[in-house]
């Protein structure tokens, strides 16, 4: 993110209200439409759906520093009820700045350079969602896990790490596989020296090799 965009982010925080959400709190769905854009400061959120049978499917994660829910600020209607199935939900306790749609749109209109950052962010989310869907179709659980880890990693000098709220159970739900499978595959990555554990957090020791394995089919 450029210094200019960082300044914009700080300005938007100043227009918002600091709020806290508990795990499983809904930030957005088409049924209640809170009409807020959120700047995620701490925690983990996800765009997901739950089938009538109770099966969850996750399409996109949001990590600290992400804007959450800015697309609905512009796409305010849909041709059918399909999107009532989708929600943005806190997957852990979260701290966020909530900004009303109208305030957010007024800010963006007054700062047209900020459009580029929004566009790039939307494209990055779209690209990650496509990669995730492709990895799931591929059927190779090991490659799918490698793809997910490269997608979800955040840089904390001198290593990349996976957000502490990504338990093996959370990763299993994202990949549509059993938790025991994730445990086995993460054990394989540990044995290869690619990842390690730091408390409850996964540390990526060799991002280059992890990326190479992910790009084999990702």
Automatic annotation (TrEMBL):
Cell inner membrane found in the keyword field: no
Keywords, ordered alphabetically: DNA-binding, Transcription, Transcription regulation
GO molecular function: DNA binding
CDD domains, alphabetized: CAP_ED (cd00038)
A biological process from GO: regulation of DNA-templated transcription
Domain Cyclic nucleotide-binding: 25-125
Name of this protein: CRP-like cAMP-binding protein
Lineage, highest ranks first: Bacteria, Bacillati, Bacillota, Clostridia, Lachnospirales
């Amino acid at each position: 993110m450029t210094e200019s965009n960082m300044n914009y982010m700080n300005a938007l925080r100043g227009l918002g209200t600091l709020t806290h959400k508990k795990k499983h709190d809904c930030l957005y769905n088409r049924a209640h439409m809170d009409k807020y854009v959120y700047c995620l400061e701490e925690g983990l959120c996800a765009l997901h759906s739950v089938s009538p049978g109770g099966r969850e499917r996750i399409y996109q994660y949001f990590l600290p520093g992400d804007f959450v829910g800015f697309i609905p600020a512009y796409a305010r209607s849909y041709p059918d009820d399909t999107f009532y199935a989708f929600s943005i939900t806190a997957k852990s306790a979260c701290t966020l700045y909530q900004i009303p749609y109208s305030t957010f749109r007024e800010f963006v209109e007054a700062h047209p350079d900020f459009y580029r950052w929004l566009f790039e962010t939307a494209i990055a989310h779209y690209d990650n969602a496509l990669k995730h869907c492709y990895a799931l179709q591929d059927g190779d659980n090991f490659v799918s896990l490698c793809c997910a880890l490269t997608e979800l990693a955040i840089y904390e000098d001198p290593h990349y790490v996976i957000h502490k709220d990504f338990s093996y159970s959370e990763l299993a739900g994202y990949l549509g596989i059993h938790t025991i499978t994730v445990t086995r595959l993460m054990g394989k990555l540990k044995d290869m020296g690619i990842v390690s554990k730091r408390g409850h957090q996964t540390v990526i020791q060799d991002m280059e090799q992890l990326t190479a394995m992910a790009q084999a089919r990702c």
